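[step 3/7] fold_predict: job queued, chain A
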Amino acid sequence: MTRRIETQALLPETFAPFGDVLDTGGAPDRIINQGKCGRYHDRARLDFSDGRAGVSLFEAEPRRLPYTLDLMERHPAGSQCFVPMSLTPFLVIVAPDVRGKPGTPRAFLTEPGQAINLHRGTWHGVLTPLHAPGLFAVIDRIGDGANLEEHHFSDPWQVIAPHAEG
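[step 4/7] structure written:
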């Protein structure tokens, strides 16, 4: 029997236990630059136990649905913010922590223009763009020491589109 996860829309209220949704929903917090720019202020809670925030560029190979989820990871020393550098959706997979391992995963599909910030210690799938170029700016902890835990599922999950037959 295949374990399945149906994707859902990425909404701030449903994603809140795992991280922050960055988008331009609602009115800007301020209008700046001579009235020509709306500032949506302080949208991500960056959190590092030590080290410093850094910006890296990731170029990931696009995947497709259905997607086999057999690995999750987490970063106990820092949050991780993914900002796509194209206006294409990507897949976000997260899970609650259950006694040091990922619990039942949840899968979210972003809308163009959305980014995410994963809270420190959140179990998540690997970077999963659904379209090329798969280029992301990633803001995360730069510092010494291990900041990666991985969990391999012996019985993988299949992530499917909403209402997929099977």
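[step 5/7] annotate
The chain has one domain: 3-160.
The domain at 3-160 is CATH 2.60.120.480 (Jelly Rolls).
exit 0
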